[in-house]
């Protein structure tokens, strides 16, 4: 009898042990979950993580208009504090308007305000995600500028959404926390004074074009040559094996295949995920076809997905802002191209270093495409040298020399042009000149004297 009871007890203990093992196995994180939480390598610095998708679509530059003078705010501490306030603005009563000649004249000459400028035509539904409220920006397909002005009574101001492409304006009101206090503080701020140049090459508004209901646009440049440092950075490199750990559910699954002399493809046959690695150029293109499905693309959800995805592995290896949105006609998804900014200036790399200055992502159910360089700039500047940007009259002379004028231009803004110097990357300050026909050139200060010269692109707009 005792032996029988011992056998039953032993059987019970074994069974209990197996049950407990099963429960522990079931409740323990899977390899994927463990890898996601603990083992994902961190590529960039947490400084560059984004709090939300709205930070990715913040305007490339903000102009402060006061007493007929302008000052440019570029991405930096002051810029991020302001964009956070603007993000939480409450928009109301948005409707289509046709501003009068007097309204445009007053706005561009005397009215204090803020002008948020995008360097490209941004889809209105993308711009809409910059604001946190429920009011829809409906009535424009594209937006180039957002202008806020008015007395700021109770922190409520007038807001204009301007489409230079469609020659249309939407007007509403915006309630912005501490707007009046912030604008008052700006009055005493130091900063480079900018002066308008209109497409006719003059500094005054063309009243004839205003009477014809044309929306005025100005290029803002300093009359004196501004001092901007030339920067030299060492380059750092992401290990492709780290990217495999980040992007594949099971990093031991991908099969490596050489397809060209310096190009390899890693493929997970179970999920169809691939990573193409160009070893010579140190670039990568990741595709996940399982995420390339779903309903109609929504910029709000796309950007939220991208933000979460990139933050998980500190994928922003610098400060990146959305540069343009490209529609994929095959499946209706949006390709989001993000531009690198250094010291507040957008960086433009040469064709030999394609991808160093941009990151391209597509998101539907999740991120389906991730394209970037595995090289990136170190966080600390190694060398700073005195340099400058050409003054307004030097820009004008350079344009005439190449057979172009202000009417051919779409945008002109400060930036950095990247060039490899030995094993280091040098950033030289330039004016980035974008033509109406889509071409782009650079104006840099002449070495050792006055004047400006074209560099990096064909200047002729024809």
TrEMBL record:
Domain of life of the source: Bacteria
InterPro entries: YycH, YycH/YycI_2
Domain Regulatory protein YycH per the UniProt entry, residue ranges: 3-437
Pfam families: YycH
Record's protein name: Two-component system activity regulator YycH
């Amino acid at each position: 009898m005792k032996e029988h009871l011992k056998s039953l007890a032993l059987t019970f203990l074994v069974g209990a042990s197996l049950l407990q093992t099963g429960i522990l196995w079931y409740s323990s994180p899977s390899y994927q979950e463990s890898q996601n939480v603990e083992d994902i390598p961190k590529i960039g610095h947490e400084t560059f993580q984004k709090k939300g998708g709205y930070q990715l679509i913040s305007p490339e530059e903000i102009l402060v208009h006061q007493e007929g003078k302008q000052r440019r705010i570029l991405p930096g501490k002051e810029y991020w504090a302001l964009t956070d306030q603007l993000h939480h603005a409450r928009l109301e009563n948005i409707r289509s308007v046709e501003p009068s000649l007097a309204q445009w004249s007053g706005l561009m000459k005397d009215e204090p305000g803020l002008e948020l400028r995008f360097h490209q035509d941004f889809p209105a539904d993308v711009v809409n995600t910059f604001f946190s409220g429920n009011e829809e920006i409906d009535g424009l397909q594209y937006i180039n500028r957002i202008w806020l002005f008015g007395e700021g009574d109770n922190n409520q101001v007038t807001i204009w959404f301007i489409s230079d492409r469609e020659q249309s304006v939407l007007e509403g009101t915006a309630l912005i926390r501490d707007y009046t206090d912030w604008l008052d503080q700006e009055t005493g701020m130091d900063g480079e004074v900018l002066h308008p140049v209109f497409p006719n090459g003059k500094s005054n508004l063309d009243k004839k074009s205003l009477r014809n209901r044309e929306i005025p646009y100005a290029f803002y440049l300093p009359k004196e040559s501004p001092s901007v440092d030339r920067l030299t950075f060492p380059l750092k490199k992401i290990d492709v094996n780290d990217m495999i750990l980040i992007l594949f559910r099971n990093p031991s699954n991908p099969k490596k295949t050489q397809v060209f002399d310096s190009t390899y493809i890693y493929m997970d046959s179970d999920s169809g995920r691939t990573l193409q690695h160009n070893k010579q150029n140190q670039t990568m293109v990741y595709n996940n076809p399982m995420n390339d499905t779903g309903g109609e693309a929504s910029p709000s959800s796309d950007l939220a997905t991208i933000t979460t995805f990139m933050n998980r592995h500190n994928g922003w290896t610098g400060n990146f802002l959305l540069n343009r949105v490209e529609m994929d006609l095959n499946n209706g998804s949006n390709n989001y191209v993000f531009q690198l900014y250094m010291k507040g200036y957008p960086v433009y790399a040469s064709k030999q270093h394609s991808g160093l200055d941009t990151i391209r992502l597509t998101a539907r159910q999740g991120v389906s495409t991730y394209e970037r360089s595995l090289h990136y700039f170190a966080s600390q500047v190694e060398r700073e040298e005195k340099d400058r940007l050409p003054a307004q009259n030097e820009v004008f002379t350079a344009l005439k020399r190449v057979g172009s004028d202000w009417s051919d231009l779409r945008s002109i803004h400060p930036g950095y042009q990247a060039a490899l110097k030995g094993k280091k990357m040098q950033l030289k300050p330039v004016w980035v000149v974008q033509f109406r026909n889509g071409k782009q050139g650079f104006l840099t200060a002449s070495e050792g004297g006055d004047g400006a010269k074209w560099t990096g692109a064909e200047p002729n707009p024809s």
